[in-house]
Amino acid sequence: xxxxxxxxxxxxxxxxxxxxxxxxxxxxxxxxxxxxxxxxxxxxxxxxxxxxxxxxxxxxxxxxxxxxxxxxxxxxxxxxxxxxxxxxxxxxxxxxxxxxxxxxxxxxxxxxxxxxxxxxxxxxxxxxxxxxxxxxxxxxxxxxxxxxxxxxxxxxxxxxxxxxxxxxxxxxxxxxxxxxxxxxxxxxxxxxxxxxxxxxxxxxxxxxxxxxxxxxxxxxxxxxxxxxxxxxxxxxxxxxxxxxxxxxxxxxxxxxxxxxxxxxxxxxxxxxxxxx
Length: 276
Hints:
With 276 residues, the chain is of the alpha/beta class. It has 13 helices and 8 strands. It has a single domain, classed as P-loop containing nucleotide triphosphate hydrolases (Rossmann fold). 41% of the residues lie in helices and 16% in strands.
């Protein structure tokens, strides 16, 4: 059964190029879209590991990349990039409150060339984020758009939260991330229904990235009923976790990178760069 699952995923991915999967227009090799949101549909997707490794891959292609951690109640991307967290009130909070703030002073420069992070501080009070609107989130995204070639947003799956809805509304292309869990499809459906009920178009979120694949029996066929498409399937690898705990990036620092993981991560990067 595991073999059938693998073949099924491969068959879906081979049907179309990354350009077709994203369903957006291209002019030559120019990036028309630069804001990409990643929204978990299930637990255990490890978006932070995906985004930190993906951000590194894109940055090494010569693009200036910013990771935007909108999980304001629990920011953690800084941990996976092995950099200190922001002091209380610095970083994302400053940009939200002051439209004259210098973005350069609020960004975290990682130890990797061309890769930056904008994040809340884990020392910020949760209630401080209740007063911000979707327009505030839009301002942050627009500010980053002007400064970076590519912005990857770690979106919290918290529908009533403006940081979730604002990112969904203002990203150019969105990806659901999911694992082989029984609630994956219902999670996607409920999120899409809620967003559309508010008048926000969620049609850009038609692609799913499966992470931590264990190749168990899973009904991938039901995705077609929802007109959703699998962009990539990343296998579960012990080294991803162990490297993260050591402050390392798996795709860069592990001496033996899993070929499937590297290939599937490359598909996501190619789709973003529209080179498919």
